[in-house]
Design a protein that fits this description.
The protein is mainly alpha-helical. 72% of the residues lie in helices and 6% in strands. The protein has one domain. Helix 1 runs parallel beside helix 7, helix 4 runs antiparallel to helix 6 and helix 4 packs parallel to helix 7. It is elongated. Keywords: Membrane, Transmembrane, Transmembrane helix.
């Protein structure tokens, strides 16, 4: 195992741990922050595949599994967004958001907080289990791209992106109803 592989594995484990913990915590829904995670994960994933040599050789099995897993990950992200719970932002949540934004300009203060709760965490754990199963299945029939950490980060990016889309749509509807 090379140091790049070890670093990649640690990076993926850190992201999975961070997302798992955040599933059950109330987090301010801020337009500038909700998109940051998926974009960062996607850029790092593409970088690892492109420049880290993880995508040097791939076959039709890799492409087929990649497409299926990407669609499944995105769909599960939408499901997690659909089961998220919302509440008006608390003073503590607003204070935490402001402390993160203290050196940044702009951005409207969030009006809601969200968390995915136990059901969201269960769905997340099932996604991870399915992801591991897909990796073993693909490896058993000659594929290898699914095991690359860059690919895993792209799946996480797709998952978080669709979660963000659904949450943004849901909060927009709530705000429109509240202002009507």
């Amino acid at each position: 195992m090379t140091s790049l592989n070890f670093t990649s594995i640690l990076l993926v484990l850190a992201v999975v741990a961070l997302v798992s913990v955040r599933q059950t915590r109330w987090t301010a829904i801020s337009a500038d922050q909700i998109w940051r995670g998926p974009v960062i994960l996607g850029v790092i994933g593409v970088g690892l595949i492109t420049f880290g040599g993880q995508g040097n050789t791939f076959n039709t099995t890799d492409i087929a599994f990649f497409v299926v897993e990407l669609v499944a990950s995105a769909a599960i992200g939408a499901l997690i967004g659909a089961v998220a719970h919302f509440r008006p932002i608390t003073e503590q949540g607003l204070h935490k958001w402001q402390s993160r934004k203290k050196n940044q300009q702009g951005g409207a203060a969030p009006e809601f907080e969200a968390r995915n709760g136990t059901l969201g965490l269960i769905i997340w754990v099932l996604l991870i289990a399915a992801r591991i199963g897909f990796s073993f299945w693909e490896a058993s029939i000659g594929g290898h791209l699914a095991q690359a950490s860059g690919t895993i980060l792209l799946f996480l990016a797709a998952n978080r992106l669709l979660r963000s889309v659904v949450i943004t749509q849901r909060t927009s509807r709530v705000l429109a109803l509240a202002r009507a």
